[in-house]
Amino acid sequence: MEIATREFKRCAVIEVSGRIDSATAPELAETFNEFTGEGQYNLVLDMGDVDFISSAGLRVLIDTQKTCQRLNRGKLVLADVPEHIYEAFDLAGFVALFDFYDEQVEAVGGF
Fold first, then answer.
1. Could you give the C-alpha distances from 15 to 32, 72, 93, 96, in angstroms and in order?
2. CA–CA distances in Å: residue 7 to residues 4, 14, 43, 62, 86
3. Angle at CA 85, nearest 5°, toward 108 and 7?
4. pLDDT by residue (tens digit) across 10-26?
5. Bridge-partner residues for 78, per DSSP?
6. Count of alpha carbons within 13 Å of 103, Cβ hemisphere only?
7. DSSP single-letter state for residue 9
8. Which pTM was predicted?
9. Which CATH number applies to 2-104: 3.40.50.2000, 1.10.645.10, 2.60.290.11, 3.30.750.24?
10. Domain residues of the chain, as ranges?
């Protein structure tokens, strides 16, 4: 898994490529924690190049969403989610917990 980050005025963008599984989820959690630790609670996760997400990866996203939404500080939104990854969210019942955007630009503009 590779992670690239960019900060904008209103949000931060985290681009992930590869697999998000039990081996790589802690690295993703650490990236999210760096932003939330600095007070940035508006986050965009670009999943366009994600091949697979496990339950450990889903757990990291849920935990980050809870942190961002606590006290109405912000939210984690997902951009460019591949169809098979979206189906995993749907199967787990997590679709209602996130805002999904077709493109990263749309997601950033949502803030």
1. 11, 24, 23, 22
2. 11, 9, 9, 21, 25
3. 25
4. 999 999 999 999 999 99
5. 45, 100
6. 3
7. S
8. 0.95
9. 3.30.750.24
10. 2-104
